[in-house]
UniProtKB/TrEMBL annotation:
Gene Ontology molecular functions: saccharopine dehydrogenase activity
Keyword Ion transport: no
Matches recorded under Gene3D superfamilies: Dihydrodipicolinate Reductase, domain 2, Domain 3, Saccharopine reductase, NAD(P)-binding Rossmann-like Domain
Domain spans labelled Saccharopine dehydrogenase-like C-terminal: 4-213
GO BP terms, alphabetized: lysine biosynthetic process via aminoadipic acid
Name the UniProt record assigns to this protein: Saccharopine dehydrogenase-like C-terminal domain-containing protein
Keyword annotations from UniProtKB, A to Z: Amino-acid biosynthesis, Lysine biosynthesis, Oxidoreductase
Length: 220
């Protein structure tokens, strides 16, 4: 998260992008050996706070104090320490971070329920509770591929392919439709003995013979 940068995907949305895996092999997987830069990562709404470790504690305020090295447990002291640690180019960024911490309850006296003894899993459990869809709410999946092309004649252009998918009111979520349906289709094709998938070991989806048919079965 320390390397997260603003990423414009579509007007009306404010994301940051950060690398989440080793992307160097994907030049080979995607069969684009001429690509000079290949970057894979994840998108988060700008302002989401990031933390990395957990000490057993009674309240979130105590965990925050231990994590940041704040002198006291009072909210103003915790905020002061966050301000010291955060390097924000804009004052609005600092406000968003603090609002995010308050919304998540990380400055509160609410008791923590640790998960697996680490902060990542504990925060994940917290977000599962906070971010669960309420009746009438919809989720959003946003995905973008961006290709910066430089042709032999020196002409440069940027080609983008963007997916914006909302869940259905009272129906399937966007995550279910974009991941669950395609995954289920691939499993069915495997059970049906689809030739290209009938191999030993891990079969990756980076060739058209693999990703093409499931894409068609799932509706394009």
């Amino acid at each position: 998260m320390a390397t997260a940068e603003e990423s414009h995907v579509m007007d009306g949305y404010k994301f940051v992008a950060y690398p989440n895996r080793d992307w160097t092999p994907f030049r080979k997987f995607y069969v684009i050996p001429g690509a000079r830069s290949v970057i894979r990562g994840s998108l988060l709404y700008k302002g989401n706070p990031a933390m990395e470790w957990l000490k057993e504690g009674v309240t979130w305020a105590e965990v925050q104090q231990r994590a940041t090295g704040a002198r006291f447990l009072a909210e103003e002291d915790l905020i002061c320490r966050v301000n010291e640690l955060c390097e924000c180019a804009e004052a609005s960024d600092r406000v968003e971070i603090l609002e995010g911490l308050r919304w998540m309850g990380l400055l509160s006296n609410e008791k923590v329920t640790p998960r697996h003894g680490n902060l990542v899993d504990t925060i994940s459990a917290r977000l599962e509770k906070l971010c669960s869809l309420e009746p009438g709410e919809l989720d959003l999946v946003m995905l973008q591929h961006k290709f910066v092309m430089k042709w032999m004649d020196g002409f440069e252009e940027t080609i983008t392919s963007t997916l914006k998918l909302f869940g259905e009111p009272g129906g399937y979520s966007a995550m279910s439709k974009s991941v669950g349906v395609t995954f289920g289709t691939a499993i069915q094709m495997l059970l049906d003995g689809f030739g290209p998938m009938n191999q030993r070991g891990v079969v990756v989806k980076y060739t058209k013979e693999i990703y093409g048919p499931p894409k068609g079965e799932a509706g394009g």
